[in-house]
Amino acid sequence: MTATAGDRDTQLHEAGLDGQNRTALGRLLGTGNVGHAEEGSDGVMRATVRIPEDELIFDPSILVFPHGGEVELTLINDDKNTHCAVLPNNGDPKIIWLVNHSKGIARLNLGGPGTYYYGSTTGNDEGRGLTAALVFGGEVPDSAKIDRPPQPRP
Fold first, then answer.
1. Is pLDDT of 120 > 50?
2. 78 falls in which pLDDT band (50, 70, 90)?
3. pTM
4. Residue 120 is inside which H or E element, if any?
5. Most buried by CB count within 10 Å: which residue of 25, 75, 121, 149?
C-alpha cells in the first residue's frame, strides 16, 4: 500500500519509523521537520539546526534554500553526548565538533542547485540517524553549464 501525503505521518508512526529506537535504531532521513533558510540583506542565507536531547536527529532534517551561494549554518547540540557535523562545501568539507550543550557556526559556499547531505561521523551517529540534507533550488551558474542546446524544463 502506498501512503498519501495526508496519512504519511500516521503510517510512519504505525511502522515505528517516526522516532528514535523503535523499528529502526535511528530516524530515517526525510522523516523529520523541513525548514527554510532566510536570505539576509548581505546575500548570505542563514539557518539554525539543533540536535535535540536523546533524539539523534538534526532538526530540521531538511533545509531548503532558494538558490546556491553563501550559507551561514548555526548548529546547536542540545544533547548530553558529543557529536560533529561534516558539512559539504565547494572545495574542502567543513567539520564542526559539537561537545554536549554547545553551538557552532559554519560558513559554507554551495554554488549550484541540488541536494547535499551531511551527518555526524562520531561513533555510529550516521547509522543511528544523525544525517540531514541541504536542498538548493535555482539555476546552475553559467560557469558550470555545458555548451549544448537548451534542454526542456518541467
1. yes
2. very high
3. 0.80
4. none
5. 75
Which DSSP letter does residue 141 get? P
d(CA 68, CA 78): 29
> What is the rounded end-to-end Cα distance, in angstroms, of the chain?
28
Q: Say if domain 41-138 classifies as CATH 2.60.40.1180.
A: no
The C-alpha R_g of the chain, in whole angstroms, comes to 17
* Residue 91 DSSP symbol: S
Q: How confident is the model at residue 1 (pLDDT cuts 50, 70, 90)?
A: very low
Of the candidates 70, 150, 79, the one whose C-alpha atom is nearest the C-alpha of residue 105 is: 70
Q: Where are the domains of the chain?
A: 41-138
Contact 63, 131 (CB under 8 A): no
